[in-house]
């Protein structure tokens, strides 16, 4: 039941729309089957499975709109759900930024689903955890990890003729391996659309090597250093590159409250703000990191360049803001891809006279939105590099840095890897600002 | 990019169609009137809970607890002169946790019937048995007596859900108008309300019915100088509270002035949102031209709204026993305050640092009668005169530190999530001697007064932290000497608390609070308050955060 086919979901949505008396009505059906396993101290702590299908109905009378949801699909429940949305709409204030619902749209064919991932059962998760724990135990190390996998679908339909459907799958795994005395810690993280590419043992090995190699770290003075930032130091739920892309909103820029605001008014689209080697785009059809082919309103998603050769090419325009400014709205694929070269992280290390390898940046928070200044800390594997080799582990640092400044101080760009649904290369950056030392391991 | 970023980027964060995907708004969109309807009768819930307890026992569980929860949320979102969204959600279901073969198992269901409960209980036992194959140590629960059939209600005066939405919208739009009248370029205001109706039953013989309320009015005011391109924001100085709508009826006695010359007003048990919005607009304009701080060592005088966040990050989190033991190593992190570290008796803070944990203080976010594993809540000391004396723990952790009872800090964000150890209220005791904010500032030669919490970051073992704020004032020779900008301080937890020189008395004591503290995988959110009075810390490292971009 949780993953409905295109025909099954559109049949429900058709029925929902047939119950509507509103001027405009749009219904979305989304479902998921998600499983997880969590372990710590080389022991499984929790495991679970959940599934759900949920219907959201938006009814509109003029500029008034109301939403109701339900997760039962008999006729009586569907009818009640539509009625409730209509009741709420009648009571709602007028939306001063009202945009009519979209009519029929043409979408790309999505590439975001793998049957291998949708077929995962509890024994697959248990085996992954057991493999990770066994490798860690065999080296007298302690592992804590989390695996979550899921199959998802999203269907949308409205009474203006719009019809959309997409399935997707995903698997996310992360593991932290620590030495029993707490003096070393290593981390590995990866995510996939296709679960056959996932290997818990290999990822745990990376984390274990970093844990063992980070014992007895030496303290370096805080200051400006050449750094090699691995993808996990660039991308996470709070990553510097996620935050950069997140701040590409046209409205905030036009309103004067973004790093992309122009002095005196307007925004910085067309300005060269980054090193010429920086190009960032979104593409729903990227085979390694696929995204959505339609957004929440049903707008078709296509490839869009955010930064091309250091120049800001596009900003994110909602339908309202686009109409107000006479431009096309931007649909967003939910992923971003940063172009890179062919060098591995090991190659970047080899070409470094003096520098610091950073596995991961963590607890990243904004300090000043004006300059996109962020602070956070290195974690789980920070090493000093000299003459092309890792010399010794170093104590963790706090940084205060802006991705805008960072992407102007590029020394080298490596081969992109998938992380968090995106493709991101390791970056070698000069003059990265570390402001204090941390005793944390 | 994760879904949450996508939602934020596309401006859908306030679009009702996607609300079920937002963590604090899990649940089903409902008519606002529905939020006023009572939940199931206690006798019905007892019968349902018994169905689960019996089914789990029959399937081989040696311990079972059942939580039947109805979680109601309302959020009203506005900007300038318009309402952006009004969301009303309800989530109803049951979570069943069991011990079988010495191992935890958990299952949840939204089919809240006797058959549905029994089925979920059997599934929980099945999962426990499956997990027991790799379990190395059997779960040990601290003994807990059953309380029979009892209830607890948050001591609110006015249920916020009963206040007409129009009144709440009018208040937020009036707040925005105040900010705009006083020179703000932009203003967003939001009112969140939460009601948790929770029924707990366990094989210890407890049947506990609880009614918990939370409210959080807040805003962000922005000022822009178009010519220079500079912009600054100031957030509300409200605290999320475990109160009803009475929090939004301001009382003069609840307004606490900052030091003379600072133009700061803090709020105790009621909040004047209109006054704060007007003041925020004036302050945010002043921030545009305030002097940029010279980095160096300063004595810091921190107001309770600010200090609450520092307490949260540098005391509340490192003393969570699950972090100390390594259960959060892959996500939230571990802690410097290990059992071995505690045994060394290294001072956590100076002699004036007395920090207490509780789940009792009226109006606080942590206050409940019983926690989510049926333990009656209490107060206990964490730090006495600078010395670490205890941790925050739950039933299956007490034996690890040689204790025989839980502290009552077990919590799950909803019926469908498994309960685990969360932070209680953690508060700094005010001075027993009379001490006003002006007295505190009088003794500072070169310092900074910080009001409101801002940017915050701390490492995974809770040593190194960096904090910003909402407004900053220079202190020169015992007096406030104008506003500063670009201020953040970096400190080490032990250095910071050992530099604590003095704290004000009870008359200045008030709460800061956090509505969405995250922990666990999958991540769960909890709400917690931190009480303190304005406090002085000597010789803290202050950095300047101004940068230039091309």
From TrEMBL, chain A:
InterPro entries listed in its UniProt record: Metalloprtase-TldD/E_C (IPR045569), Metalloprtase-TldD/E_cen_dom (IPR045570), Metalloprtase-TldD/E_N (IPR002510), TldD/PmbA_N (IPR035068), TldD/PmbA_sf (IPR036059)
The Metalloprotease TldD/E N-terminal domain extends over 30-89
Q: Name one Pfam family in it.
A: PmbA_TldD_1st
GO terms for MF: metallopeptidase activity
KW Protease (keyword) present? yes
Q: Which UniProt keywords apply?
A: Hydrolase, Protease
Under the heading SUPFAM superfamilies, the entry gives: Putative modulator of DNA gyrase, PmbA/TldD
Superkingdom of the source?
Bacteria
GO biological process annotations for this chain's record? proteolysis
Q: Where is the Metalloprotease TldD/E C-terminal domain?
A: 222-435
What family does the database annotate? Answer: Belongs to the peptidase U62 family.
Protein name in the entry: Predicted Zn-dependent protease or its inactivated homolog
Q: What taxonomic ancestry is recorded?
A: Bacteria, Pseudomonadati, Bacteroidota, Cytophagia, Cytophagales
TrEMBL record, chain B:
Q: Does the keyword Hydrolase apply?
A: yes
Q: Which residues form the Metalloprotease TldD/E C-terminal domain?
A: 295-541
Highest taxon listed in the record's lineage: Bacteria
Its GO biological process annotations read: proteolysis
Report the Pfam families cross-referenced here: PmbA_TldD_1st, PmbA_TldD_2nd, PmbA_TldD_3rd
Q: Which GO terms describe its molecular function?
A: metallopeptidase activity
Where in this chain does the record put each Metalloprotease TldD/E central domain?
162-250
Family annotation (InterPro entries): Metalloprtase-TldD/E_C, Metalloprtase-TldD/E_cen_dom, Metalloprtase-TldD/E_N, Peptidase_U62_metallo, TldD/PmbA_N, TldD/PmbA_sf
- According to its UniProt record, which protein family does this protein belong to? Belongs to the peptidase U62 family.
Q: What is this protein called?
A: TldD protein
Organism annotation: Hymenobacter mucosus
